[in-house]
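pasting Four-helix bundle copper-binding protein for the record, 85 residues
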Amino acid sequence: MRCTAEKDIAVLAQCIALSMECSTICSMLAQLMSMESFYAKKLLSICAEICSNCATECYQHKNIHCQACAKACEACAIACNKLLT
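structre below
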């Protein structure tokens, strides 16, 4: 997490928390999808929501790493929503 190396991490607290939640749910979803788990589809909407919220939060910060994270989270949310349809 590049955010934790910033001088004023208090400003990035929500960004850091959402990024950690987002990476956790994405990893868990990828594992379940690789097992063709019945529950993977149920987690897609949760993953899309967390990724979308993380993207929104990260876009508020001008750091290069936050902008890159926001783009990746946005792409993940779009991919999850496509899989839901």
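The radius of gyration is 13 Å.
The chain is about 75% helix and 0% strand.
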